[in-house]
Amino acid sequence: MQAQKHTFVISSLLLLFGAICWAVAGDAKDNGYLFNNLLNREPRAPTEIFPQPNGPFAVVLFNEGSLSTLIGVLYFKAMMNPADGEWKIDDRFWQKGDWATDVTSFAWGKNGKYLYVGTMNVYGHAGLYKINLWERKSERIFPTDNLLKEAGLYGSSFAIEIVAVDLERSRLVVEITPQDPEDIKKGLKPVRKEIEFQ
Fold this sequence. Notes:
single chain, four-stranded antiparallel beta sheet, about 40% strand
């Protein structure tokens, strides 16, 4: 019964995605590895799909207007087996609140194992998240509390955005931007850092 329910839900989701917007969209840079400026793009479809350039996954982007921009990960290609890593043929969609809400940007890792997600903290938990696609695990890797204190943003509202990918050097360029009007009035500026990625 449970397997039938999952199969029905997955089939329904795929049909819904097809009916709403089965398009690959966005400001793709670096051969389809980086998608940023997600909050300011126009026009925005209600739902968009961004296939991984070097693997079987896709990011599904949900543009929910004032309720946030959310993502989930979909095992997009045919599995051809009952299971592949932590993915099952009837369990192909993953979404976790820490990294799935208030998404500003994302970048596919070079080796096909990771997805990097930048978020802000209106509804979400601002940070740069490293998502292990095969193991369905995630960790917040940036920024540190010390860096936020140095930037004057500790305990304040900020956004993390991946602004560039350097595939040759295996580096992400990440920007921390103040979001609180009081911080902006004080003259706090965005801070850019390079982060190693795989």
